[in-house]
């Protein structure tokens, strides 16, 4: 059934199709119709970062930027859902068109630019939470905030979402906010994470609930840079790392329609890059810091591949757009069988 729905949606502009599909999904959840379409996700509980996940498969940030649909998305069987990226102030993002499909490679290029309604809107949405799984909140900086003041935006968002999240992700790897990826390296990264860690501890002491802090990194790093990032993450006491965000590379899509569009490429072409980063990270982190693997997961085998490289959890995004809810059943079943 999903293939028929997808064929109809793919006749529309990608951003229009995105909003229509989420509106339908939200309505189905509110009307209690989702059980008619929900795949049978395998129960495969795991404990990571001190949190208990019903299964290791999550939905990556970006699909539900404002926290408007996470109740419906979570009801499909994900073990965790990550919403955002959200910024302190609302912002429109980059000019349209800014989202492009490359169906020959089950890929997407986006240059959305953190379009969102602001962290206060997301906070209000989360107050109406019905989803009982793990909820991650992904935060970023406003495009108008100078890079030297970026930590202030992350601190602002952290303070707003701490009480609502099971974990918080710092998105410092989107290629669509100028200069953002510079925060991934050296003293800039260490200084920022040090301040964020101090704020986390203040909240923990005030309310007695520890919310893990996670950093999302790019796939476009060499092994030396990956080693340096791993060192900083450990030194600053981060609780996890997501590998990876979208790539600025175009390997695997050369010559295809839209392949020359600027933005981050996701889907099958980023699969090997992401897996390499995971494996390289794991060689330095060992089991001292859990890795959440994302990038090019389109079936159970590609999810198992990420786990074999060193991931403890996995996330999907583009694969979910192309495969639909059945991907949830395929991945959770494959991970459960591998674990057994």
Query: Roughly how many Å apart are the termini?
Result: 31 Å
What's the helix-strand series? HHEEEHEEEHEHEHEHEEHEHEHH
Secondary-structure-based class equals alpha/beta
The profile of the biggest β sheet is: 8 strands, parallel, barrel
β-strand number: 13
Strand order of the largest sheet: 3-4-7-8-9-10-12-13
| Individual helix count | 11
Give a structural overview.
With 340 residues, the chain is an alpha/beta fold. The chain is built from 11 helices and 13 strands. The protein has helices at residues 2-9, 14-30, 70-74, 119-126, 150-161, 186-207, 223-235, 271-285, 300-309, 318-323, 326-339; strands spanning 46-48, 51-53, 57-59, 80-86, 99-102, 107-110, 134-139, 167-171, 213-217, 240-243, 264-267, 291-294, 313-316. An 8-stranded parallel β-barrel has the order 3-4-7-8-9-10-12-13, surrounded by 4 helices. Strand 7 (134-139), helix 5 and strand 8 form a beta-alpha-beta unit. Helix 6 runs parallel beside helix 7 (223-235), helix 8 runs parallel beside helix 9 and helix 9 crosses helix 11 (326-339). The longest helix has 22 residues, at 186-207. The chain is globular, with a radius of gyration of 18 Å.
Features:
16% strand, eight-stranded parallel barrel, 340 residues, 38% helix, alpha/beta, 11 helices, globular
Summarize the structure.
The protein has eleven helices and 13 strands. It is an alpha/beta fold.
Task: Set out the fold topology.
Elements: H1 2-9, H2 14-30, E1 46-48, E2 51-53, E3 57-59, H3 70-74, E4 80-86, E5 99-102, E6 107-110, H4 119-126, E7 134-139, H5 150-161, E8 167-171, H6 186-207, E9 213-217, H7 223-235, E10 240-243, E11 264-267, H8 271-285, E12 291-294, H9 300-309, E13 313-316, H10 318-323, H11 326-339
Helix pairs in contact: 5-6, 6-7, 7-8, 8-9, 9-11
């Amino acid at each position: 059934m999903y293939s028929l729905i997808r064929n109809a949606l793919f006749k529309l502009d990608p951003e229009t199709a995105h909003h229509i599909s989420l509106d339908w999904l939200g309505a189905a959840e509110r009307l209690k119709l989702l059980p008619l379409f929900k795949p049978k996700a395998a129960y495969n509980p795991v404990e990571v970062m001190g949190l208990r996940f019903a299964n290791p498969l999550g939905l990556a940030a970006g699909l539900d930027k404002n926290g408007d649909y996470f109740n419906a998305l979570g009801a499909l069987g994900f073990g965790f859902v990550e919403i955002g990226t959200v910024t302190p102030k609302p912002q429109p993002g980059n000019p349209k068109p800014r989202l492009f499909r490359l169906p020959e490679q089950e890929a997407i290029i986006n240059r959305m630019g953190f379009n969102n309604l602001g962290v206060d809107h997301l906070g209000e949405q989360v107050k109406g939470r019905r989803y009982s799984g793990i909820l991650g909140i992904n935060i970023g900086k406003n495009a108008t905030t100078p890079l030297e003041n970026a930590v202030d935006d992350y601190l602002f968002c952290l303070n707003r979402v701490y009480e609502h999240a099971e974990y918080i992700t710092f998105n410092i790897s989107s290629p669509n906010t100028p200069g953002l990826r510079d925060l991934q390296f050296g003293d800039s990264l260490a200084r920022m994470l040090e301040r964020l860690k101090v704020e986390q501890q203040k909240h923990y002491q005030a309310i007695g609930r520890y919310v893990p802090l996670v950093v999302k990194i790019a796939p476009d790093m060499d092994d030396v840079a990956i080693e340096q990032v791993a060192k900083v993450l450990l030194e600053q006491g981060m609780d996890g790392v997501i590998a990876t965000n979208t790539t600025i590379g175009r390997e695997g899509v050369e010559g295809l329609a839209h392949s020359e569009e600027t933005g981050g490429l996701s889907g099958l072409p980023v699969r090997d890059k992401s897996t390499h980063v995971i494996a390289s990270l794991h060689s330095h982190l060992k089991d001292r810091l859990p890795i959440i693997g994302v990038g090019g997961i389109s079936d159970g085998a590609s999810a198992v591949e990420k786990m074999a490289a060193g991931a403890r959890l996995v996330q999907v995004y583009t694969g979910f757009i192309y495969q639909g809810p059945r991907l949830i059943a395929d991945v959770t079943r494959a991970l459960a069988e591998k674990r057994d």
